[in-house]
Structure formats: structure tokens, C-alpha cells
């Protein structure tokens, strides 16, 4: 029987043996077949699951962090007022604390459902789902500096315009002392705050959700659909998707469909550009300017075939997408929308430095002698196939929006 592993989200992975683009044979966990199934873990390796549920094959190295040192950090974390928003991960020479990304989803959905009769049971279910599917990012690490004296030092992750950096907190000493000083500095509250300028947008979003929900319950088809060709600018060969969405989709809904179709993780800022007008998230408009993406529909801003717009994701890496309206037509009788009709090539990894950084990443992966080859493989967690595209997997993701 092949080796299988089910992660905390209930997703099953199988162990496969495949040949990477560097020509080397590797073992990888995957949800879909990517090689020959393997009946046992390779010697010297173990199953590893990240806080975000990513399953991989890791070297089974001796642990340098002692159980009582892990317990010291866990003890301090339990005292934190938002302990449930953090995850502790033990690595070879350090302990890392991961924080939940973004606002509390249960609270956010509660506001969106306001006035629609949401029950306390619904709120509890949303919070349970939020905990199950939440994404986490490392924010604090406590590293072993002197294995003999058992001294540690703490670093905090800081986001800057040029990228994320780790900054020393100036704390060093025993694990107890460092944990007592560093762990309480973790952000203590996750706010769900709707500023006054965003209230009209939030109301419009609620009304649109009601109308969409009513159409789903009745089984009615959209009056028309927009067929879009989405191309990641600068990609050679092109990375593209062809999708069909209801014409009454707002740009806010289109944003979510684009994220799912392309394969992005929706963890960065974005906006749409149509002519001289920019549309974006209403929660960011006061700072960034532009129009509310939830108040503009495709039928209004791109009403006919050959209309064009730009979609920018991640203002740092600047992943720019060209969106061409190929046609506006009645929906197919037996089709459900949104749907991906075709596409080519894999979405680049997040935080890979934009299209030029992605090109450099692929070059390093293709050359086993490149000095960054092994580091890039470790960063990715395994081989990367830039030609991979799974239409069925994309449509399983898009089915969440139907």
C-alpha cells in the first residue's frame, strides 16, 4: 500500500517518486499522481506538515531543541490573550511562532451576514472553519545560539516595502528568559474594524450577496456570461487562463475568481485598472485611492468583446495580468459558473520576486551546479514543474464560488 498522510484540513496526500527538472529522483507528497507511488518512507526521512497543512518529505535530523525548552515557550504562549491565533513549530535549531494571517474570518463573515438572520450556531461553525482553514505566517523565532551553554536569542519578522526581514529583539539568555520577554510582544489583538468610509461598500456587498444567494437557491442562470482570457504579463512562454464568469459579477468577485483560477493565495494587495480608473478593496481605498471594486460590475466596466483591463496582484512583486473580454454570450444550458475552460502552465510561487525573479528561480532549479539550486529547492519544499496545469483542480477550486 502506498504511504498516505491526511493533514489537519482533512486533505489526503500520497507519497510518490518522481524525477525533478534537475534530473534527480526525489520523493514528494502530492494530492494528485505525480509519479510512481511509494510503499514506505525512504530511510533517513520523515513526514512533515507545516502550520498551513502543506505535507512534505523532510530529513530526519536529530533534534537540538530539548523537550523542556519547547515546554517553556508553550507555557508563555498559553498565557497570551490570543494564544489560539498562533502555532508553534520546532525546527532543527530554533522554535518558530506562526501567526494567523488577516482579520478574524468569523467576525468578518458575521458582519457580512448581519441582517440575514445568522444564528450563534452559524457563527460557531464559521469560527471552527476559520481555525481549520486559516493560513499562518512566521512572526517570531527563538534560535539556539550556544548549544553548550543553552543560550537563545529572539528575532521578530518585520514587513518593509523592500521585503520581509528578521530583526533582533536584543533578547538573549536562557530559553525561559527569552520566552518571557519575547512571546508577550506578539500582537495581542486581531481587530475586525470597518472604517466609516467603507460602510457603503460593505452594505453594497451584503446586498449583492443576498441577490447571488437568491439566484443560487432558485437555480436561475445568469443573464449572460463574460468569457475572459487572463495572461500573466512578461511570462515566456505565456502563463494564461480562459475563464467564464457571470456578467453581473463585481470586480470584487472577479478578484476571487482570478485568485482561484491562477493559483494565487490571496495574501497581498491588488487592484484593477480600466482606462484611467483604478478599482480596489474598499478597506484600502482611503490609503490607496480609487473606486470600490464591489460597486462595479463586469457588465458596466467591460460591456463588450475586446474590452480590456489590467489586474495587479502584490504591489511588491507586481504580478500584472492582462484581461481580455473574448466574448459576451448567453450561458451554456448545463454549465455552472465561474468555470475555467482552458489554461497553460503553473502559477509562479508567491514571494518569488515578480516575473524576473521567477525566471531566475527557474534557471537556478534547472542547473544543479547553480549556487542557489539547493536553497531554492528547500524554499519551495520540493521540485517545481513550470509546465504543470490541472484544469480539473482549478475547477474544483472555482466550485467554491458557485
Per CATH, the superfamily of the largest domain is: MM3350-like
Overall average pLDDT: 83
Rough outline: globular
- Run of helices and strands: EEEEEEHEEHHEEEHHEEHEEHEHEEEHHH
What's the gyration radius in Å?
23 Å
How many domains? 3
Number of helices: 11
Q: Quickly give the CATH architecture of the largest domain.
A: Roll
**Mind telling me the CATH class of the largest domain?**
Alpha Beta
CATH topology description of the largest domain? Structural Genomics Hypothetical 15.5 Kd Protein In mrcA-pckA Intergenic Region, Chain A
- Report the span from N to C terminus: 36 Å
The strands making up the biggest β-sheet line up spatially as 16-15-14-17-18-12-13-19
Could you characterize what this model shows?
By secondary structure, the protein is of the alpha+beta class. The protein has three domains: 56 residues, no CATH class; 119 residues, no CATH class; 166 residues, Structural Genomics Hypothetical 15.5 Kd Protein In mrcA-pckA Intergenic Region, Chain A (Roll). 28% of the residues lie in helices and 31% in strands. The strands form four sheets. Strands 16-15-14-17-18-12-13-19 form an eight-stranded mixed sheet. A five-stranded antiparallel sheet has the order 7-8-9-10-11. Strands 1, 2, 3 and 4 form a four-stranded antiparallel sheet that branches. The radius of gyration is 23 Å and the shape is globular.
